[in-house]
Every structure is written in C-alpha cells, then in structure tokens.
Design a protein that fits this description.
Helix content: under 10%
CATH class: Mainly Beta
CATH topology: Methylamine Dehydrogenase, Chain H
Largest sheet: 5 strands, antiparallel
Structural class: mainly beta
Number of helices: 1
CATH architecture: 7 Propeller
Distance between the termini: 53 Å
Strand content: 35-45%
Shape: globular
Strand order of the largest sheet: 1-16-15-14-13
C-alpha cells in the first residue's frame, strides 16, 4: 500500500502509455432556477443514490409498494428519450442522475473481444424524477476503443450535494448535484498509465469518509482512494494485472469496518481509511472478469464469477479474517457474470452463466436447489449463455423485483423450495446484442414508489405505488 499526496494530473501525457481517448471538455449546461434540497450522506429510505441502492446490497426499503403485477401491467408514468449506455440511474429526492453516450462517428459493433473505433459525447444527466425532463447536463467529447461500446457502464454515486461519475474510458469526475458544475476530473489511464479494460471502466465508485474509492489496476494501485473534494490521491493499495470490473463495498465484520475489493487475482479486505490489508484470498475469474460484488449475509461472504469461480467464505466474529468453506464445481454453485446475486435465509439467488437461468443455491455446500427461465426469457427451454436477470429484494413484503434481459419486470416470491411469479410486464425493448440475441443490461433504480428503467433509446418510469 502506498500513500500519495499530489495534485490532479489527469490531462498529463505518459511516454509509452497505451491508447487513451482524446477529448475536449465543454461547458456544462444547466437550469439554474431548480434548487436541490435534502442531499445527505445518510440517504432516505426511498432514495436510490448509487448502484444497487443506498447500501449497495440490492434491497429496496420503501413502503406501500405493489406486491403483484396485473395482467394489463403497471401504469407508466412517463417515457423520455436517452442515448446509449448500460449505466443505471441513481435517484435522490426529486432528481435522477445517469450517464449516456451520443455516438457521432463509428459503427456499433457488439462483439466480446472487438474494440471498434467510436467517437461521441459522453454525458452526465440530471432529470426531474416526476416528469423525466432535463434539469442539467454535463458533457465532453470521448473516443471509445472498448468492446460493447453502447455507452457508459457506471451508475453515478450521489451524496452530500455531489455527483461522482466514471465514464467508460476512465474519466472520473465530481460534479455539483445542484448545477452540474465540474469540481474536479482525472482520466485514470492517463494519470496511472493503465489500459482501459476490454469492456470499459465499469466499477461503480464508492464514496466514504470524504473519499472516492475506485478500481484502477497495476502495481500497488489495484484500488485507489481520492480526496472527494479535490481529487488528490490519499492512498493506493494492492497489485493486479488488470483493472477488473467489481465495485468496492463496505461491511462491518470482525469488529472493524472492512473495504471489500475483488480484483482479477484475488478478493481482499482493506482498512478503508488507509488501504492497509486485513486479508486476501486467491480467486481468478475467466478473462479478468471480476464483476459481481461480494455479497454477505451473517457470517457468510459469497464471491462469484465466470468459469466455476464461486467461493463461499466465513467471516470470524473476533477479527478481520476469512475461512474458505467451499468452491464452485461442475453442476454446483452459481457462476454469475454481469449481475450480482442476492443472499437471503441461507439461499443465493442469481443468474447462472452456464445455464442462463435464475438459480437458487444453498449456502451449505453450493448445491443448486432450483432454476427457472421465467424472469429471464419465459419461452426458453435450453441453456442460454450469459442469460441475465437483475435481482432486487423488497424489504417490507419479502418479495423480489426481477428485471430480465428482454425488458420484462417480474414480481415473485422465492425461497429454498421454489419460485412463484406474481405477475410480469414488458417495460421496454432490448436494444443491445449478445451472442446473437437482443438484450438490455441495465439494472433498474427503485425510488419514489417507481421503477426507473433504461435502454439505449429511452428511460421509463413504472408506477409501483400500492394505491
């Protein structure tokens, strides 16, 4: 781990560095008469201020939500046009924050290991949550050289009146949530001499203790903490061959707060204040695809990735450490790739990469309990490579909100015994492609008794209120 103090040098060049996009920064546009209130690091239960919700656990805690979807579907509040991207929205108060990409040149080629040349404008948007109308936008020219170049991958993190955003080519920035004015910016490949990952920068930044923490990659800089106010590096830690895609997260375990980091070589725990290492366990996913956030219930910690890279760990109560319990084997466990699974009452729920089905797995030994294609692709009857379903649990009802890759929203009951649907509706069309099929790969945001769902064409607000 290295401590470093210095100014922002994101626009400086590095001799011999890999390709980095050339861009010209433009002035943010905004509507100044709209005033934002109520931003706080302790977000209200009905906010969705970052990826997978207030505590990044995929739990939706708002009350008075429907427990089923009627045959005619739920009401649509509004639909507004947006540009390309995988980045989910964040919602705080009466504002939505999201990123997209307005392509101006180049052909959209969606192949797993092809980096087509693209030119366009990457944007951070602020929209009115009641109407979908734009309040402000911050935009900059950005060339893409990544696979699946539809647009940004990262959900903005919104806290204390600030928006932390990360573009697909590594543009890390902090903006005013009120006006969209830029506070600071760095380009990660330029500053740290790393290559943009094959599938773009996708690790949602974590904001804690006045720091912005994100994955970088390289020697002694796998993960880096920046000062939230000025972008100066506070600490750097760990080494990894590539950046990876998994967002850092926080847990309380072993009597301390632990920062969990899964880079392409191992899952590790750090002291979030200074980057000191608590523990590390080797886990190398296929293709450096450390993507899904390590998920915890009680003393269990589950990490999962492509090609039989499931790992169940036990967290001792008296110290920051782990014990390996079991690892994924053929026809066992769950290999989640693009969607983080959820843990509840001794069961893991998530999309299994090998079958493409929504799958339930036992904590005890990793044995699969059941699987279903109903929320993913109801008509499917055979293995579906990288089938995707985003899983969210509603705290009050105990039911699950499931958003599948074809644009279907499902409400269901799930436990160790099986799956029961309580209705399903088509929200929007899949506009991306994967392995010859059309998909949408964006996790919904849930706030204001509403599901906010996007593809490359539109952002849709679905009314979830129980009235």
């Amino acid at each position: 781990m290295k401590l470093e103090h210095g100014g922002i040098s994101g626009m400086n060049s590095h001799a011999g560095r890999p390709f980095v996009s050339h861009r010209k920064w433009t002035t943010a546009t905004f509507v100044s008469w709209v005033v934002i209130l109520g931003f706080s690091s302790l977000c209200a239960a009905d906010d969705w201020p970052q990826w997978m919700g207030p505590t990044r656990d995929g739990v939706y805690r708002e009350a008075a939500i429907v427990d089923s979807i009627p045959a005619a579907g739920l009401p649509i509040k509004w639909r507004v046009p947006v540009k390309g991207g995988y980045a989910s929205p964040a919602v705080v108060g009466n504002r939505i924050f999201m990123m997209d990409y307005d392509r101006t040149a180049g052909e959209l080629i969606e192949k797993p290991t092809t980096r087509p040349e693209q030119s366009g404008i990457e944007r951070v948007l602020c929209l009115d949550a009641k109407t979908g109308h734009e309040i402000w936008s911050y935009q900059y020219e950005c060339d893409y050289r990544i696979a699946y170049p539809a647009g940004p991958r990262v959900t903005p993190t919104v806290t204390d009146g600030l928006v932390v955003a990360l573009g697909a080519e590594g543009d890390l920035m902090v903006l005013s949530a009120d006006t969209g004015k830029l506070k600071w910016h760095i380009n990660i490949p330029e500053k740290f001499g790393v290559e943009t990952p094959m599938w773009g920068f996708a690790s949602h930044p974590l904001v804690t203790n006045n720091m912005v923490i994100t994955m970088v990659g390289g020697e002694d800089q796998a993960v880096v903490a920046f000062n939230r106010d000025n972008g100066k590096v506070i600490w750097k830690a760990l080494s990894s061959s590539q950046t990876g895609y998994c967002p850092p997260s926080l847990i309380q375990a072993g009597g301390v707060e632990q920062l969990l980091v899964w880079h392409p070589e191992a899952v590790a725990s750090l002291n979030p204040m200074n980057g000191d290492l608590y523990w590390t366990e080797p886990l190398q996913p296929h293709g450096a695809m450390s993507i899904a956030r390590p998920q915890r219930e009680g003393n269990y910690l589950f990490v999962t990735g492509m090609k039989n890279k499931s790992l169940m760990l036990r967290l001792p109560q008296d110290r920051p450490a782990v014990e390996r319990l079991w690892e994924g084997k053929l026809r066992k466990a769950l290999d989640a790739t693009t969607a983080t699974p959820l843990l509840k009452d001794g069961v893991i729920y998530g999309s299994d990469d090998r079958s493409g089905a929504l799958t339930a797995v036992s904590f005890v030994d990793g044995e699969q309990l059941w699987k279903t294609y109903e929320p993913v692709r109801p008509e499917n009857k055979r293995p579906l490579k990288t089938g995707t379903c985003f899983v969210t649990r509603h705290e009050q009802s105990g039911r699950y909100l499931l958003f599948g890759e074809t644009g279907l929203l499902t409400i269901a009951t799930m436990n160790a015994d099986g799956f029961q649907s309580h209705g399903q509706m088509k929200v929007l069309e899949p506009t991306q492609t994967c392995r010859g099929r059309n998909v949408v790969w964006s996790h919904p945001a849930y706030a204001n008794q509403t599901a906010y769902v996007r593809n490359d064409i539109e952002l849709v607000a679905v009314d979830l209120s129980d009235n």
